[in-house]
Write a structure and sequence with these properties.
The structure is a homodimer of 379-residue chains. Chain A is of the alpha/beta class and 379 residues long. Chains A and B meet through helix 13 and helix 14 of A and helix 13 and helix 14 of B.
């Protein structure tokens, strides 16, 4: 289980590797396509996920525990079968969602009590509960329960929180081993990743990373970023933390980001990322292209008969014009959202593919220079 | 153009035929899949339409005139190219929408003035305008502008309205011939169908049908039904009117209906139908099956691991369980709607295919006995 990751080459700080999971291999750096509730936003199903080049889907522990319930999903054979996706799945622990979506949360040493965002019902989740839920889902990678502190936060609070998140991680790790050793485990090869926290305090980030690295987990994530800090602050923290992440383990930067953020994170040694931007920006008519971000609501596309990106091989660019997509956006047709998410996920997965190719050929620095700024500009 | 329809066999009142259009042939009886604004509800695109077995799509003159504008679509090569659908398209005239969606309408001999349902802007549409718009769209079949009177309506009003709708049809026919003979017609083979009206007055329905039949148009429709009358009243009118429809011309029953309605209409000699039910009912979680209509919101499907219809070959039933679809409905995921519309359109198109097979093999009466009641029951 600990040998799930193989680093195959490095180039200008970027790492090229391969992740092996019970449901197949993932070439890294990889973008995880977000299926929070067991479905991709915009109406894509598991077959479409294959089409857009997704290697690994990300679902959410908090959401699936609340609805339809992890016990139900276990009864139905686990999340892979439930959502008809036979490739790797990572489940986020729900830490971030508990702190961003639910009300009335109360954190104690034992765990976190919160109100469901759907019906207000009180729920308690201990680190052990969090792992049991993910064991029921049967994802390939489970994330430890953490407290995702806001930025900015008081240093003393962050320090105490990091200490507690570390103690929770120890409990998650013990529960994960217990769950994998039960006779009827849905996915006995489930790996546990620990999550680094520490807000923007360099010493707390480093200290926390060193402590969790000692647990020798299958992988490590950097959490609590992209929550209000500047890009420069985020990059500084990634640089600080990756220095103390075990190089033989995959490094997952949670919830990041724009194409430029991804290139910059990869340049600092990140192997895995996830973000809701392909769907969220798609909903607003923003399409990612190799020339920058195209806003198809713009009047100038009203009679534009060309595809979003003429050189793109995605099903959207092969079939539909900017003018048609703009019409769908203006008319409020569900198809607009589906086309946007399809194209944007294809773009993100293609971006990762080109990043991997650049690392392999030793041209990542040139790739970064060419695209890092350009991809996030508005066109 | 007048020879677009070939009647190939009949059985127990039902007709089996073939419609030839500039964009291909349509086997009848046929269900037209509704793409009001140039897109199927639920996020299906033109490729998905092929997948669900659609032979002919239906778009709306009123909607496309208002947004994005028929002149724009003409500039972009016509509606087929705009929506990337290279098979037949029928455009509804907008008569029904003007009378159901828009406010402040005023009917004169010249045409109808109304307020756009999107921005309240005043629009005037004459019969000639209506045909010019459809010529710009370049559909294969254009529908004449009619007044769709409500049921019930005063006899005197209906009589005067039928007379005016007849005079409008004469003007539509003249304009249609002019448009098809222009040098730069988008689709010079566009056929015009006339629409029978007359509310529930048998003599007005018959008189109107006789008059429009004399124009020797490529096809005829029965309009103004499924707007408040009972099923028995609707079937009576269909029976009355079809008796006076030229048997060598296709007969289109507009806006109908449930699977049972369709079987009953076909039994009375109808060749073409359209309805928004596959999408509208799908949105509410209602799935059409050969055993009846299944409401997937029902608690009893929460842990049901079987497909909606185990014998169905549609992409939804081949991949997804009732439990997963129910979860998507409860979670408000766009995918629920897409799966519902995909399955329901597949079902409607399969229903027509089985109806055609039954007519060909002389077993339509038995088919009707077996399914007419069953298909609309709630299960």
């Amino acid at each position: 289980m600990h040998k799930m990751f193989a680093l195959t080459s490095t180039d200008s700080g970027a790492r090229r590797g391969e992740l092996t999971t019970p449901h197949g291999r993932v070439q890294t750096p990889a973008f995880m396509n977000v299926a929070t509730q067991g479905a991709i936003k915009g109406g894509l199903d598991a077959r479409d996920l294959k089409t857009v080049g997704c290697q690994i889907a990300l679902a959410n522990t908090y959401h699936l525990h609340i609805r339809p319930g992890d016990e139900l999903i276990r009864k139905l054979g686990g999340l892979h079968r439930f959502m008809a996706w036979d490739s790797p799945i990572l489940t986020d622990s729900g830490g971030f969602q508990i702190f961003s979506l639910s009300g009335l949360r109360k954190i104690t040493e034992e765990g976190v009590a919160f109100a469901s965002h759907t019906d207000g019902r009180r729920i308690f989740m201990s680190p052990e509960d969090c792992i049991r839920i993910q064991a029921n889902l049967g994802s390939d990678i489970a994330m430890a329960l953490d407290e995702c502190v806001g930025i900015p936060s008081e240093r003393e609070y962050v320090k105490a929180s990091c200490d507690r998140t570390f103690r929770w991680l120890v409990r998650c790790n013990e529960e994960s081993q217990r769950q994998n050793n039960t006779d009827d485990a849905v996915n006995p090869g489930q790996a546990l990743f620990g999550i680094n926290q520490g807000a923007t305090y360099p010493d707390l980030r480093i200290e926390h990373m060193k402590r969790i690295a000692e647990l020798d987990l299958p992988g490590y994530a950097i959490g609590g970023l992209a929550v209000g800090e500047t890009h420069a602050e985020m990059y500084d923290i990634i640089e600080l933390v990756t220095e103390h992440m075990p190089s033989a383990r995959p490094r997952y930067l949670m919830g990041v980001g724009t194409p430029s953020n991804i290139i910059e994170a990869v340049a600092r040694g990140i192997d895995m990322l996830d973000c809701v931007m392909p769907a969220r920006n798609g909903r607003h008519g923003h399409f990612f292209t190799w020339g920058g971000v195209m806003n198809l609501n713009n009047e100038k596309y009203a009679a534009d008969d060309t595809p979003v990106e003429p050189t793109c091989d995605c099903p959207v660019c092969r079939a539909h014009s900017r003018a048609y997509i703009r019409h769908l956006l203006k008319a409020g047709e569900a198809l607009a959202m589906r086309l946007a998410v399809t194209h944007n996920l294809w773009f993100y997965n293609s971006l990762m593919s080109r990043i991997r190719g650049a690392i392999e050929s030793g041209s990542f620095a040139a790739f970064r220079r060419e695209f890092s700024d350009r991809l996030s500009q508005r066109i």
